[in-house]
Here is the input.
Amino acid sequence: MDRKKELKLQYRETETEAGVYQIKNTRNQKILIDSTTNFKTMNGKLLQLRLGSHLNRSLQEEWKQFGEEAFVFEVLEVLKKKEEGYFDAKDELKKLEQKWLDELQPYGERGYNR
Here is the structure.
């Protein structure tokens, strides 16, 4: 097998992790709480911010104002999958995100969530 095919196979076999993360502005401590079924998609959020196309206008404006160096991406919690019985990952991920929204209250002056 050539190296390119080997790498593609290895990528497909890599288990993805779902969970909740935050994008934090270290200058004013405002945060955006979000969830994802695959933490690798956080790179896409970073790219959106760099290109000026992130859907959260308030976050995008402050990214432009303060610069990339003022922001950090942090995983808050990884979704733990049940080994037995029924497990609705989407539903559990929504609950996990809501738990963090309730705890951190990233609204208004405290954050970018609506």
